[in-house]
UniProtKB/TrEMBL annotation:
Residues 515-524 have a biased composition (Polar residues). Residues 452-551, 583-626 are annotated as: Disordered. It holds the Pfam family PTCB-BRCT. Residues 4-104, 343-415, 630-716, 739-850 form the BRCT domain. The lineage of its organism: Eukaryota, Fungi, Dikarya, Ascomycota, Pezizomycotina. The gene is brc1. This is BRCT-containing protein. Residues 498-513 have a biased composition (Basic residues). One of its GO terms (cellular component) is nucleus. Residues 601-610 have a biased composition (Acidic residues). CDD domains: BRCT_BRC1_like_rpt2, BRCT_BRC1_like_rpt3, BRCT_BRC1_like_rpt5, BRCT_BRC1_like_rpt6. GO terms for biological process: DNA double-strand break attachment to nuclear envelope; double-strand break repair.
Length: 854
């Protein structure tokens, strides 16, 4: 261990990046870490008032994450970015340690691993050490307190016994984890997978089959990043606490988010109270919040290097009060309005994912442009699964449906194009592993986004921040014999010469054929002279002579037609006048229904129609263009489609041709079709939006008549079920419109895992009504501080439960945790949430209590 005063960090200038894992108390001037660096000749460079690091001065940045604004710039400046463990290791070695094993770079998946091999054959040992070092790890021949893994065949080796005796916190793993299978798994997937199935002394891979039950892992990293457009603010922000993340930042909130006035006011107050400001001009903004990847503001902000994110990203900043890049999580960045090209023909379902991971993938499928289906049918195109073991997986193999892991859709979305299924990364499923443990680690590549959505325009508009100008080659320069012109410059010049001809088109003038264009734009004399001069000196790269021949050959048909025009009796037309007069005469003749006129037109212009017709067909509106969507219809319990996939698909196509789009997202529907008032998940979730509810016969009428009837004639009336559920459907819809999907806002609702009809059913209903839904597994949940002004008692917290013994065991734990959090426990049956959703009134829970002690 280094003695105080030993100049280990001489000539080193350090800066810190504060985060949740490296809080301010750990790095302030009075902290032990700060004093340790200074005691060993290190210098500390403070961050400026905006929290930025002065990259010109520092040599090392201490950070636990690569997710900070200046990370890429620091890498370009060759500044070492290391975790705090680097300092400890340097002190132990009494010299500066190698920075690579301590980098927070997520691509070096073994960066925090120090491995020591035990009874491993020499060949395998070399392979293991080389692999670990290549992926950012370190190796130690002897066992130390910094050793994280011992690679051994049994626990009988002296190293393993020594670790057990000294109580070292290192894991003993089989070499399979790194060589035979597991390391291959990590390399194929590009992610680090949990090593627990290979841990000694009782490895799971030796005692269990790959298809045996495996718990679905938590997906906490997706909290706040599973939806691109959350409905409500997180509960933790209701106190409007002071935020540091917006300090000295100007934020612009785009209108395409469609946020109502009250909601927008809350967001603006949070930003302003956090020493930030709101701007209505993207030119002044530091952050731009929008929903779609389109528009001038989005393009300008992206080109100018402004942080561009969506509403989910803004909520994440507010919730954690910590900056994170909107490119780090896929659903924190604005979504493409048309999806990813190619995904519109896919029907995708999921298997072996749960919780936030499942919600995240459902939304990712939808924003990619594919259709998500909860159940799997033979017309599904893809199954995304976390492991190759489930009924859906078996059916996918029988039906020849493509089976992939989530990396396929994540990387397709990140790279903005459909990835090839032949890539082994996408169809690899390690044994005894649920790949949900590595979900959400894929990030955007800024270069890909730029090339797809905001490329630099060679002829920029005045609004572009930094116009990219290309040198323009003038005709007088082209005539210089000593001047070499590149192929790209020639093509750019030709494009610019063609633009004036295109600009002369008007709404009353049809697109001209090649013949007309030939009469209008004769090749410039300078270009012919230039071509002749170039012919004198043959070029080895691109022959101007061949190009001239090709141009003459392309004009041969136009020249022949021009000769025919000269022989025509009557006035000889040429240039634009000819095209305009022809179009005018043909337009006038088409307005007449006289057969004689039609015949005359066919005779007079028979020679030109051969060349004009194909052009007109290419530019005319396609016959199969779909009408705009007038009704977004959600369908539930429709008997005509149950068990009849072919009819459903055919009817959906017919409805779409009428402007009726059948949707699956309850929050996105304008109309709901049902045979009666039913307590299905779709009905209750869609009711929260206050849609027009029609009878299922509405669908039959559309299909039969070939047109959309008046929806008011099909409004659902069901007095029987109204009496049964104690409501008036008309009043429930009116309340839903007034509630705006927020009747359960700020209401914490938990649910047991073994509840009837599965937790996912109730999750969708709760979230559709603005509530927060969490599975209760007997663990502590977040404490909620009682507001000082609330003198009427603590707020309730609900647990949806059945009456199985396995669920009843959870009740005392829930009661205890609720009391610790200053909340009143209410353990209720599922009828409470179903009736609340269907009446759109927050029902009293007294009649639904299952636990007498509540």
């Amino acid at each position: 261990m280094a003695e105080p005063g030993n100049p280990i960090f001489e000539n080193c200038v350090f800066a810190f990046w504060q985060s949740r894992d490296l809080p301010d108390a750990t790095i302030d001037q009075s902290s032990q870490l700060h004093n340790t660096l200074e005691n060993h000749a290190g210098e500390i460079s403070p961050n400026d008032d905006d929290g930025k690091i002065n990259l010109e001065d520092v040599t090392h940045i201490i950070s636990t994450t690569s997710d900070f604004p200046q990370y890429s710039e620091a890498r370009r400046n060759m500044i070492s970015i290391v975790k705090p463990a680097w300092i400890t290791q340097s002190l132990l070695k009494n010299k500066q340690a190698q920075p690579r094993p301590y980098t927070p770079d997520p691509n070096l998946i073994f960066s925090d691993i120090t491995i020591s091999c035990a009874d491993i054959p020499t060949g395998d040992k070399d392979a293991i050490i080389g692999a670990v070092l290549a992926m950012g790890g370190a190796e130690s021949s002897s066992l130390t307190r910094l050793t994280t893994h011992i690679c051994a065949l049994t626990v009988d080796h002296p190293k393993c016994q020594q670790a057990l005796e000294k109580g070292l916190k290192c894991k003993m793993v089989l070499p399979h984890w790194l060589t035979m299978n597991r390391f291959d798994d990590c390399l194929k997937l590009g992610k680090r997978i949990d090593e627990r199935p290979y841990c000694l002394p009782d490895p799971e891979i030796f005692k269990m089959k790959p298809e045996d039950t495996l718990a679905i892992p938590d997906s906490d990293r997706l909290l706040g990043a599973s939806s691109p457009h959350p409905d409500t603010l997180p509960i933790s922000t209701v106190d409007l606490r002071h935020l540091d993340v917006f300090r000295n930042k100007k934020v612009m909130i785009s209108k395409d988010l469609e946020i109502n006035g009250r909601h927008l006011k809350v967001l603006e107050d949070l930003i302003v109270n956090g020493d930030g400001s709101i701007t209505n001009s993207v030119h002044n903004a530091d952050m731009f919040i929008c929903h779609w990847r389109e528009g001038r503001d989005y393009t300008f902000a992206s080109r100018a290097g402004i942080d561009v994110g969506n509403l989910s990203w803004l909520y994440h900043l507010i919730t954690h009060n910590e900056w994170t890049s909107p490119l780090r999580r896929l659903l924190h960045y604005p979504i493409p309005r048309e999806g990813i090209p190619g995904f519109e023909k896919f029907r995708i379902t999921l298997s072996n994912y749960g919780g936030e991971a499942r919600t995240y993938l459902e939304n990712l499928v939808n924003v990619s442009g594919a259709e998500f289906t909860k159940s799997m049918k033979q017309d599904n195109t893809h199954l995304i699964t976390a492991r190759k073991s489930s009924e859906k997986c078996d059916a996918a193999e029988d039906w020849n449906i493509d089976m992939v892991n989530h990396l396929w859709i994540e990387e397709s979305y990140a790279k903005c194009e459909v990835q090839k299924l032949s890539n082994p990364r996408y169809n690899h499923f390690p044994p005894r592993t649920n790949l949900g443990e590595i979900i959400g680690q894929t990030q955007f590549d800024p270069a890909v986004l730029e090339s797809r959505y905001f490329p630099r325009d060679p002829t920029p508009s005045p609004s572009d921040p930094k116009p990219l100008r290309r040198p323009v080659m003038h005709e007088k320069d082209r005539n210089q014999p000593s001047l070499k012109i590149s192929e790209d410059d020639e093509e750019e010049e030709e494009k610019k010469e063609r633009r004036p001809a295109k600009a002369k088109k008007t709404a009353a003038t049809r697109p001209r054929s090649k013949s007309t264009t030939a009469l209008v734009s004769t090749p410039a004399p300078n270009r012919r002279i230039s071509a002749e001069k170039e012919n004198d000196t043959p070029s080895s790269t691109r022959s101007a002579k061949d190009k001239a021949r090709a141009n003459i050959h392309g004009l041969s048909a136009d020249i022949a037609l021009y000769e025919k025009e000269k022989k025509r009796k009557g006035p000889i037309w040429g240039g634009e006048r000819a095209a305009n007069n022809i179009d005018k005469q043909k337009s006038l003749k088409r307005r007449s229904s006289s057969p004689a006129n039609l015949a005359s037109e066919g005779e007079e212009f028979s020679e030109e129609e051969d060349t004009r017709t194909p052009k007109r067909q290419r530019t005319s509106k396609p016959a199969n263009t779909l009408p705009p969507i007038g009704i977004r219809l959600l369908v539930t319990s429709y008997q005509g489609w149950i068990g009849n996939t072919n009819k459903e698909d055919a009817d959906r196509k017919k409805l779409r041709e009428l402007g009726v789009h059948v949707v699956q997202d309850p929050s996105n529907c304008t109309h709901l079709a049902a045979p009666a008032i039913v307590r299905t998940k779709k009905f209750l979730a869609a009711l929260a939006s206050g849609p027009t509810i029609v009878r299922s016969e509405f669908i039959d009428a559309c299909i039969k008549d070939g047109k959309v009837p008046d929806a008011t004639a099909f409004v659902l009336k069901d007095t029987t079920n109204e009496k049964r559920f104690g409501l008036k459907l008309k009043d429930a819809v009116a309340r839903a419109k007034a509630n705006k999907r927020s009747i359960l806002r700020h209401v914490p609702i938990y649910c047991t895992e073994d509840i009837p009809n599965k937790p996912e059913t109730y999750k969708d209903i709760v979230q559709a009504n603005g509530g927060t839904f969490t599975l209760f597994r007997g663990k502590a949940f977040a404490k909620k501080v009682k507001p000082e002004e609330d003198e009427g008692g603590n707020e309730p917290v609900y647990l949806l439960s059945g009456t199985k013994e396995k669920e009843k065991v959870m009740w005392p734990i829930f009661r205890e945790e609720a009391k610790k959090g200053n909340m009143v426990p209410r353990i209720v049956s599922t009828d409470w949430i179903l009736n609340t959703a269907i009446t759109q009134q927050l029902e009293s829970s007294d009649d639904y209590l299952l636990d007498d002690e509540c």
